Amino acid sequence: MEWYNIVIPIVTLIVGLVGGFFIGVFYLRKQMEKMQSDPEMLQKMAKQMGYNLNNKQMQKAQQMMKGQQGGQQKFIPNQRGGKRR
Fold first, then answer.
1. Are 80 and 56 in contact (CB under 8 A)?
2. What is the pTM of this model?
3. For the segment 13-22, what is each residue's pLDDT rounded down to a tens digit?
4. Which residue intervals make up region (Disordered) (predicted)?
């Protein structure tokens, strides 16, 4: 019965790590959904990362976040048009 002293803590650690991971992912997704609908929150996050977004950049960031919702990414074409040589 000594093996219980080794197996139970290891199983508990694994279950805790997996559970913590899924709770963290759930929390992060909810925060991203809030930022998507609240431009001020998105602006605040950008400033914390050292970026200062103008209105056009803010709209593009919101479109990107909406495109990533549900695990799908949408292609957003470059505003300049095609390639230049």
1. no
2. 0.50
3. 999 999 999 9
4. 61-85
